[in-house]
Amino acid sequence: MTTLLKKEYNDVAYISGPLLFVNAASDLAYGAIVNIRDGSGRTRGGQVISVSDQNAVIQVFEETRGLDLATASVSLVEDVARLGVSKEMIGRRFDGLGRPIDGLPQVVAEQRLSINGQPMNPAARAKPEEFIQTGISTIDVQTSLIRGQKLPVFSGSGLPHNELAAQIARQAKVPGHEGDFAVVFAAMGLTQREVSFFTQEFERTGALARSVLFLNRADDPAVERLLTPRMALTTAEYLAFEHGYHVLVILTDLTNYCEALREIGGAREEIPGRRGFPGYMYTDLASLYERAGVVQGKPGSVTQIPILSMPDDDITHPIPDLTGYITEGQIVVDRGLNAKGIFPPINPLPSLSRLQGNGIGKGKTRADHKNVSDQLFAAYANGLDLRKLVAITGEDALTETDKLYLRFADDFETYFIGQGGQDRSIEDSLTVAWAILSKLPQSQLTRLSRDSIDKFYGTKLDEMWRGNRI
């Protein structure tokens, strides 16, 4: 790494947590990368996060313990945080700062890019309208992911969002573009068990061959957690817009990222916002989420699935609340379904994909896709309402049609939502949907066209089960 400036700054005023305050350093630039050297000769990395006439504030990438104000010095390394990127990063594992952790040599960089990315010209954005198949029926049929979309997963503590993330990374594809599809996976605040899980899962399933992994551990500095998603998105943008890949970026867990933001804000003695989080958290999250999209004239694209665990399962908490404003829907992981042993426990009723209509239908998935999705939603909602009624009045008070809806809700959860680790094509998912809908009278399928009913009604679930189709 080439040193840009030999000048050293020796007037370190004080240290607060991971922050270093340096006087008479107003010529340092915001975002610059520096080295901090202590009296023993040990060097730590850092990044400038604030500059004023009085001082510069530096986030130290490692612990600040042992730094002595009298002997510490700061020197500039790069004008802005950069990542050396290369197509050879595919199949590799890195830490949160982009350093290899797979025992292989450092990547030979084709370019060194700012991790803050380049603003995407709104006029150059193309309309997202190409379906991404995740292999998960509830997502593909009812909350469809579209190439260039940002579609977060709202989960909770103890729910299997890590397993869901690994399954999506393993199965996702753009039909017809399998050869130029890549996954960039960034995990923040992982325990050692989670690091082992993701490492083994990607290697065991072969998903690593088309993936780039950035793994930030829980015992790594909080500052590193703030850089990890930017490292991942810089890699994704390079693969997408320089090499034409369709890149799916999975970021987990954004709650750990926001907690690091709050920790750094507290160390800077900032005035807190809602629940102690910085008032600029909306802007900070937007700087990550808005790096998804399709650019006119570029063959590649960046699609995002941010995953966050809602504290106390509270969807009004600032993290999911602000995420919902910025992104284009949400996939909700349900604690009740998980308690029943259903995997993946995705509840389609509070889930939503605002761009679904752009990428499904005739010539994209199947002509009956949207109507099947609407019919499943309505029938399942009716079945859940009837469950509440049965808890009060008993099943004897129901009509025969009501009992069919009650059984539909059970079958929908068991066979459609609860697919386990299977990889289903969109055709298979729609076939399972029709098999379950066929247990309702045709007169109840008011959201389906007569042509679709004549073509697909009557599919037998038992026959599919024996044929290992589900």
Automatic annotation (TrEMBL):
Belongs to the ATPase alpha/beta chains family. SUPFAM superfamilies: C-terminal domain of alpha and beta subunits of F1 ATP synthase, P-loop containing nucleoside triphosphate hydrolases. The keyword Transport applies. Residues 135-353 form the ATPase F1/V1/A1 complex alpha/beta subunit nucleotide-binding domain. One of its GO terms (molecular function) is ATP binding. PROSITE patterns: ATPASE_ALPHA_BETA (PS00152). This is V-type ATP synthase beta chain. Produces ATP from ADP in the presence of a proton gradient across the membrane. The V-type beta chain is a regulatory subunit. Residues 15-69 form the ATPase F1/V1/A1 complex alpha/beta subunit N-terminal domain. The keyword Ion transport applies. GO terms for biological process: proton motive force-driven plasma membrane ATP synthesis. InterPro entries: ATP-synt_VA_C (IPR055190), ATPase_a/bsu_AS (IPR020003), ATPase_F1/V1/A1_a/bsu_N (IPR004100), ATPase_F1/V1/A1_a/bsu_nucl-bd (IPR000194), P-loop_NTPase (IPR027417), V-ATPase_su_B/beta (IPR022879). Residues 359-457 form the ATP synthase A/B type C-terminal domain. Keywords: ATP synthesis, Hydrogen ion transport, Ion transport, Transport.
